[in-house]
Amino acid sequence: MKKIGNLTICVPCILFFAWYIIVSYANVYACDDYWHGANVHSFGFWNAQVFYWNNWEGSFTHTFLATLPHIFQYERMPFVCNILSLLLLLYSTDLFIKTYFQASKYRTVVYAGYLVAFLLTFTTGEAEILYWVCANNAYLFGISTTLLLLSLYHRFDFTINKTALWLILILIAIVGNKISFIYWIVLALLFHDVIYDRLSVKHFFIILFFVSAFSLLNILAPGNFIRLSQNMEESAAYGMTIGDSILYRIESIVPFFFASILLLPICISLHLKVTGKNIIIQTIALFLLFIGDTAIMFICFHDSGPKRGNIILEVSVMFYICSLLCYLMMWLKSNRLKTILQVASCLIFACYNIGNILQIEESYEYSRISHERDYLVIKSEQKEKILIPALPNSGLLLSYFCNEEVWIENVYLEYFNKKMRVEIISNDGN
User: Which of 114, 231, 365, 428 has the most crowded Cβ, counting Cβ within 10 A?
Assistant: First the structure.
């Protein structure tokens, strides 16, 4: 029975990765991707980095990765980016599990696959995180480097090679991505030490020093002040308070919290010994992370921030629920019942993935229309008025997260170096 329960964990993993690879092949650029491409075409790759630093943000690893695909004239670069970010996330999650949990080499790969599949399936910002290339690079890369950091910290020593690699990763993770990762890294390292009863004040303050120093490089970039001003002006119309922002984020993350029950198969297989002290400390850490991350989002956006920003909290919730479920499973003595729970959870997750697979056709329709629009713009003469089809607002590749008229007018045509009038034809022909 135990072997059956462990084998069923593979089923939703296989279905998810099959779906992910197939649907990623249909991925296309959208929204800010065209802006990044237009800046590379206008300024050149390296000068574009300087432009972002002075005019947009200090997250230079993010802007580096967001612009890098555009130096390659390859139609399937969004697909390549999706696969590379997935492989990096799988590797970092696998290393994290090997570091913190007792499991065989084969099982850590399966567990890592299950956790990554769960995270990318149920994140509230799915359309943005998975299919918007610049968002995919910013958030999944940041999560991967943070998991690598936590794994290295567990084995931390002051040999030159390890310390140098470790500091480079801090620099990439913090200066290269969103400020909220700083909060996550510091909290995770602090509470890791408390949980394992080996709090090293020296190590923690060394980390805190470099985190603070690298963070200033990000925060003090001239572009950050320009972007923050724009965000505040755009969000002023909503009149959202910090209290509204907290309530909205709670509401948006609750579905992910309840979906985390599907992590049962992993928690039953891990046999991880978790104490009540561990759960209390992790609960406090998650609460502080939620308050801190929400405050950062409110300061940066003057509202609750984009849905894709929830993934930072969702990763933390995922590992927190894993600990909580491991603790609860210690009290369940029936191996037969544990196997039933494992199989049932895996089947539910598998059915959800089958539902996604059945929608693949809609993603390819989105891709087909996007390529058709590109072709119409490329072959048209300058200053000519052209009609292009509207992107479908259904399926897995959605256009809802970006005002289509605005980005077509401002960056889409600039990407192709065209000056013309564009009219969007809706699906009903009007």
Answer: 114
* Helices (H), ranges, 101-159: 105-122, 126-131, 133-154
Residue with tokens 């490329």: 378
pLDDT digits (tens, 9 = 90+) for 179-216: 555 566 666 666 655 555 555 666 667 766 776 777 77
- DSSP at 58: S
DSSP three-state, residue 29: coil
The whole-angstrom separation of Cα 112 and Cα 120 is 12
Q: How far apart are CA 307 and CA 121, in angstroms?
A: 14
H/E run at residue 365: helix 360-379
C-alpha 395/C-alpha 127 separation (Å) is 10
As a dihedral over the C-alpha atoms of residue 409, residue 410, residue 416, residue 420, rounded to 10 degrees, the angle is 40
Three-state DSSP at 121 gives helix
Token pair belonging to 375: 């072709």
Q: How far apart are CA 194 and CA 430, in angstroms?
A: 62
Closest CA to 78 of 394, 393, 374: 374
Question: Tokens representing 180?
Answer: 């909220």
Backbone torsions φ then ψ of 278, nearest 5 degrees: -55, -45
pLDDT at 400 over 50: no
Single-letter amino acid code for the residue at 132? W
Distance (Å, whole) CA 335 – CA 31: 50
> Got the DSSP string for 169-224?
HHHHHHHTS-THHHHHHHHHHHHHHHHTT---HHHHHHHHHHHHHHHHHHHT-HHH
Q: Give, in order, the Cα–Cα distances in Å from 150 to each of 4, 9, 198, 294, 399.
A: 32, 25, 15, 23, 35
pTM score, whole prediction: 0.86
Closest among 20, 29, 24, 42 to 69, alpha carbons compared? 29
